[in-house]
Design goal:
This is Probable enoyl-CoA hydratase. Helix content is about 40%, strand content about 15%. The chain is an alpha/beta fold and about 290 residues long. The longest helix is centred in the N-terminal third of the chain and has 16 residues. The C terminus is likely disordered. The protein has one domain: 2-enoyl-CoA Hydratase, Chain A, domain 1 (Alpha-Beta Complex), CATH 3.90.226.10. The protein contains 10 helices and 10 strands. The strands form 2 sheets. It has a 6-stranded mixed sheet with strand order 1-2-3-5-7-10, sandwiched between helices. Strands 4-6-8-9 form a 4-stranded mixed sheet. It starts with 14 loop residues before the first strand and ends in a 30-residue tail after the last helix. Helix 4 packs across helix 5 and helix 8 runs antiparallel to helix 9. Helix 1 links the parallel strand 2 and strand 3.
C-alpha cells in the first residue's frame, strides 16, 4: 500500500517540486548542466511523479526546466550514456520508474528551451506539450551510436505519425518549436517567456473545471485506445460511461452547470479502480533524496 504524503513535503537534490493551487510544478533543476540527466535525477523524477499521483490535492502536473533549457539529454560528463552518474543496470531502472503516462491526472510538458534526447522522449510521455518557438528539439541518439529510449519509437509514431517518427528518430536532426507544432509533435508554440505561464493556464483550467475521476478514466481510455481495436474499446468505454454517470460527480457536474456555480467534486483520481497506483514507490512523509 502506498502512502499519500502531500507533494509539498517532498525534497530533492536535482528537482524542485512545488504546488500552485491544485497544480504541481516539477522543475528539472540542474541549470549549470542545462538540466542534463543522471540516474539519480531519473529516480527523483519517478518518485516525484508517484507523489503527484498519490496526492489528491494535485489535479494536474506541469514539468518544466530551470534556466534557459528544458533538458539537453543525458549528462555525458557523468559516465555511461545509458547510466550517467551511476553503475546501475539501466534496463532494470527503466522498467521500474514511474513516467508521466502512469500518473492518473494530466501531465503537461512546458518545454521552455532546448530539449535533446531524453528531454524530448520524456515530454512525449506527457499528455500536452507547450513549447518555446525558438527551442531546439532533437533525438540525436543514432548520431551517438545508440537509439532513443523511453518508448520513443512507439510514442512519437502515435503522436505525430509514422513518417515524422522515421524522419526525426532516424536522422537525429534538430527542429525548432514552430516546426514541432507543424509536425504535430507539440500542441502549441509560444514565446519563451510565456511557456510556463501557458502550461499553467491549461493545468489550472483542468483543475478548475473537470472532475478528477472522469479525467482519470478518460486518460485510461485514451491510452488503451492506442493498442485496442474500436469494438473492444467502445465496449469498455460504454461500461465505464455507465459507471461514471452513476457516481455522485455526474450529478454534481450537472447541478453546477444548471446553477451556474463551480462544481464541488467528491471523486478522487487515486481511488479510480481502472488504474492501479503507479510504480513500486512508497511515498513516505518528509522523505528526502
Amino acid at each position: 500500500m502506498r502512502a499519500t504524503a502531500p507533494v509539498r513535503q517532498a525534497r530533492y537534490e536535482n528537482l524542485e517540486l512545488a504546488t500552485r493551487g491544485e497544480v504541481a510544478v516539477l522543475k528539472l533543476a540542474r541549470p549549470t548542466r542545462r538540466n542534463a540527466w543522471t540516474m539519480p535525477m531519473v529516480h527523483e523524477t519517478s518518485h516525484a511523479l508517484a507523489a503527484c499521483d498519490a496526492d489528491d490535492a494535485v489535479r494536474a502536473v506541469v514539468i518544466t526546466g530551470s534556466g534557459d533549457s528544458f533538458s539537453v539529454g543525458a549528462d555525458l560528463s557523468e559516465g555511461s550514456i545509458s547510466s550517467p552518474g551511476s553503475d546501475e543496470d539501466p534496463i532494470e531502472v527503466m522498467r521500474s520508474i514511474v513516467t508521466p503516462r502512469d500518473v492518473r491526472k494530466p501531465v503537461i510538458a512546458a518545454i521552455n528551451g532546448d530539449a535533446i534526447g531524453i528531454g524530448v522522449t520524456l515530454s512525449l510521455l506527457c499528455d500536452v506539450r507547450v513549447i518555446a518557438r525558438d527551442a531546439r528539439l532533437a533525438t540525436p541518439m543514432t548520431r551517438l551510436g545508440v537509439i532513443p529510449e523511453m518508448g520513443a519509437h512507439w510514442s512519437l509514431a502515435r503522436i505525430a505519425g509514422w513518417g515524422v517518427a522515421h524522419d526525426l528518430l532516424l536522422t537525429g536532426r534538430r527542429i525548432d518549436g514552430e516546426e514541432a507544432v507543424r509536425l504535430g509533435v507539440c500542441g502549441e508554440a509560444v514565446d519563451r517567456d510565456r511557456v510556463l505561464e501557458r502550461a499553467l493556464e491549461i493545468a489550472e483550467d483542468i483543475a478548475r473545471h473537470t472532475a478528477p475521476r472522469a479525467v482519470a478514466v478518460s486518460k485510461y481510455l485514451l491510452q488503451k485506445a492506442e493498442w485496442t481495436g474500436f469494438t473492444e474499446l467502445r465496449a469498455e468505454e460504454t461500461e465505464l460511461f455507465a459507471r461514471v454517470a452513476d457516481e455522485p460527480d455526474a450529478e454534481e457536474g450537472v447541478a453546477a452547470f444548471l446553477e451556474r456555480r463551480p462544481p464541488r467534486w467528491s471523486g478522487r483520481a487515486s481511488a479510480e479502480p481502472t488504474w492501479q497506483a503507479p510504480g513500486p514507490h512508497d511515498i513516505e512523509e518528509d522523505e528526502e533524496f
